[in-house]
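Journal club prep — side note

Before the paper discussion, L.F. wants everyone to see what a predicted structure for a comparable chain looks like in C-alpha cell form. Sequence:
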Amino acid sequence: MTRSRHARSIAIGLLAGAVTATLVATTLTTGAAGSLPGPLAEATPSMGPTASTAPTPGPTPSGGPGLCSPPADPMVAQMPLVDAADAIDAVVGTAGAGFAGITLAIEQCQVHVYWVGPLPASVAMVVDDQRHNVDVVVHTDAGYPNTELAAWADQLLDDPSHGQAAGVEVTGVSVLPEGNGLAVDVWPLPAEPPTPPEAAASAALSVFGQQGFPVTAVAAVPLAEPAGRANDRSPWIAGAVHRVPGGGTCTTGWALRDGADRYLLTAAHCIGPLALGANISNGDGTRVIGTVAGYMRAIDSAIIQVNVGGGDNVWPRTWWGDIGGVETMKVVDDWDGTYKGQRICTSGAATGVHCFTRVTDSDYRYRNSLGWRVDRSARGTDVDGDVAAGLGDSGGPVLISAIDPATRLPTKVAAIGTVASVDGRVPCRGAVTTTCYKTVIFTRIKPQLDRWGTSLVTG
C-alpha cells in the first residue's frame, strides 16, 4: 500500500514472553543488580570523523501558529517532524550515494539531514518544500554515507575474528545517522581471570580503530534477550496474548493482508522450532488464532495465518491501556518510518502501553541469546529510565500517534515495528507480574511487509 503522510507521534516496545524456561530465567544484565552500563568508551577526534558542524538553520516555519512550538505531549510535537522526515527519506533512494541519515530533535522542533557533500537537487527541492512546515537543518559534512557504514557494520558483526582480536564478542552494531561512524556493543570472551566488561569495551575501541573501522564508541552489552488481552477472540487485533506451544506467551502483532488472506505478525522466536502449520491459540487457550505460515530469524519475524481463502477475521486495531486497568482500542491508520530521536510507544500483552521511549539507534543489527543474527532493527530507551517493555511483549506493536482526518485529533496510531528483545532490567509497575526492562529492540515494519509480501490492515 502507499503510505499516507499523516502526522505521527512515537513510542518503542519489545520483548517476548517466556518462550522456554531458559529464556524466562535469563535477563540482560551485567551483574546481580540487573543494571547495564551505558557507553563505556568513546573515540577521540583523531580516531574517526568528528560530528558535522551545525549549519545555518532553514527559514522560520510558516505552517501556522504554534506548528513548531512543541506542546507538552512530545507524541504530538513530533508529528510534523516525522512527516517531513518521511518526505525527505522518500527521495533518498534516487538521489545518489551521499545520504548518511535523518534525525529528529523534538525539543527544538527540527529535522536534521546528514549528507556527504552538497545535497542533490532533487533532495534540496524537497527540503525547501518541507521548510514551509518545520525547521530542516542540513549537514553537508557527514564523514561517511549510510551504505559504507552499513557494510562495515555487517563485517564487524558477521566476522568474529575482529572481535576475537580484541578479546570480545561483537553483540550489536549501530550505524550512526549523523554519518560519523559506528557505535559497537561488545561482551568479553571467557577468560581467567574474567575481563571486566568496562575494560573489554575500552580495549576493543582501540583495537577496532587499529583495524581501520570507523568506530566512535563501544559499550558493554551482552547478547540480546528475546523478549489484553488475555482472552482475545475473532476478529483478532494487535496487542493480545498468544500462547507458544511448549509453554510461555507472546503478543500478537499488526494485522496484515495479502489478497483474500489475513495474517497477524509476531516474533520468530515466539514460534521456536515449530513446523509450518502449527496451531497458535489465544491467551487462555480457549480459541485457535491460526496457524504458523512462515518465520524468518534474520529479522525475528513470523506470521500467523488466521484465515484461508477469505474472511475478514482481523481488525485494524491494537489494544491500548495498562495491565489491570481500563483497556480500550486504537485504530491503525498506516505505517511509518523510524528515526533517531523519535518518541515511540509499545503495546505489549504482558506490560501494557509505554510511551516515553526515545529511539537511540535507528539502524541496528545484533545477535540475540539464541545465537541468531538479527537485522533491520532499531533500539530505544525510556527517557526516565522506566519501563519500555517486558517479557511476554515480544511480537507486540511498536507505534506512534497518527491524526484522524475526520477529527484532526491524534487518536489513531501508525505502525513502526514489532517488539523483539529487551535490555536493562527495571522494576515493573502496577498489576504487571512479568520482568520489565527500560530498553527495547524492535524489528522495523517496512522490512516485514516486504518479506511477507503483505500490506497493513488499516481502518
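L.F.'s comment for the group: Residues 242 and 282 are 5 Å apart (CA to CA). Keep this in mind when we get to the figures.
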